[in-house]
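can u do me a favor
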């Protein structure tokens, strides 16, 4: 095991007028720091394309994750998918990125636009081996990974964007590479990069996509730990133990909650400086403690973080709000969603008397549910999450 990890993000838009997307992306995380990512593009659009792409991506990702060869995967796909009565073929196109121990990437590409790779912030011409399986030409590459390597896989809805409107022959792959190459050095997350690419395609389509368009971005980066303290311990005698464990952890430290901040300030022997100015009317102000990277209010702020997390995992329409906001929720989101890869929660089980007012919509169970919801959301983002209760 090394100190590298994969940041994986994707986004899709549907063909105009279709309820279902004809593209499908499947990701299987394995315990040994290995991932299988499959982007499948079903023939046509709508229900049939959605079924074809879902079957293809699910079968391939599962088989490869279990150690079967690409030859077996392609043969299985050919035997499993129904024959198209119009075109007489039985497949969807697919792109596979198989990350092995975060050290090696195996790329397998069949009829989708070629993966664009960046190394040292420059477009990188990686080697490709042409192989033939059951009459199908497949390109296979094996690449030794380096920190900051970026892979961009896409369906053909991306280079088809703008045909007959912004461009005569669509958005050429080299133009896509130039566009994305200007964004890579900014250190956006994989999800944000995928969102920016697909949103640009949607713009070129005039917001009426003539095809399903999907992009999946994989960034190889160093692991960054992030630590969150949320609530005081149930037993006051455990305060020193909780603080000692929290502050001894490597990485940045976030303290959430007024009482929690007071305990942290006392343990550090530093003053707690509060800010009475609201950056946003519905998110309480932040505070400062020397030695702590971020101090925020607790339940209300965390609830907003979860709202942003759910949107981030869906269409990511709220990303500009938290990417450029200065309120506590936005600052937490940038630390957790963009910067951190390994998140350690230190959660106190003490019951806040202020939350027992029946007129307030906050209680102990809601607080615990917030932690569980955020944990699940972060895990879906590919983060390693550990929760310790006190």
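np, heres the sequence
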């Amino acid at each position: 095991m090394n100190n590298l990890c994969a940041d994986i993000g994707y986004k899709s838009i549907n063909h105009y007028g279709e309820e279902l997307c004809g593209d499908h992306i499947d990701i299987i995380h394995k315990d040994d720091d290995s991932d299988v990512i499959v982007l499948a593009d079903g023939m046509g659009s709508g229900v049939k394309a959605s079924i074809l792409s879902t079957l293809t991506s699910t079968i391939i990702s599962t088989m490869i994750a279990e150690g079967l060869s690409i030859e077996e995967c392609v043969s299985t796909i050919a035997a499993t998918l129904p024959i198209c009565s119009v075109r007489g073929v039985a497949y969807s196109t697919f792109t596979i990125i198989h990350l092995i121990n975060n050290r090696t990437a195996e790329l397998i590409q069949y009829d989708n636009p070629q993966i664009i790779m960046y190394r040292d912030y420059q477009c990188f011409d990686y080697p490709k081996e042409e192989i033939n399986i059951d009459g199908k030409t497949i390109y296979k590459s094996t690449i030794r990974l380096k920190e900051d390597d970026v892979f961009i896989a896409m369906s053909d809805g991306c280079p088809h964007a703008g045909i007959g409107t912004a461009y005569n022959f669509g958005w050429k792959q080299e133009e896509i590479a130039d566009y994305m190459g200007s964004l890579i050095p900014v250190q956006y997350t994989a999800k944000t990069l995928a969102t920016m690419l697909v949103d640009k395609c949607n713009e070129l389509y005039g917001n009426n996509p003539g095809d399903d368009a999907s992009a999946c971005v994989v960034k190889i980066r160093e692991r960054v730990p992030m630590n969150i303290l949320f609530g005081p311990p149930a037993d006051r005698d455990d305060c020193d133990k909780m603080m000692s464990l929290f502050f001894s952890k490597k990485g940045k430290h976030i303290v959430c909650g007024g009482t929690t901040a007071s305990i942290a300030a006392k343990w550090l022997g530093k003053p707690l400086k509060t800010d009475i100015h609201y950056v946003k009317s519905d998110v309480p102000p932040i505070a400062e403690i020397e030695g702590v990277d971020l101090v925020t209010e607790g339940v209300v702020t965390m609830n907003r973080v979860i709202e942003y997390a759910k949107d981030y995992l869906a269409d990511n329409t709220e990303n500009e709000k938290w990417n450029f906001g200065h309120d506590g929720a936005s600052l937490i989101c940038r630390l957790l969603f963009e910067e951190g890869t390994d998140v350690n929660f230190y959660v106190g089980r003490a019951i806040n008397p202020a939350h027992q007012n029946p007129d307030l919509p906050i209680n102990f169970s809601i607080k615990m549910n917030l932690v569980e919801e955020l944990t699940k959301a972060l895990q879906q983002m590919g983060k390693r999450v550990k929760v310790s209760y006190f």
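Residues 258 and 297 are 6 Å apart (CA to CA). hope that helps!!
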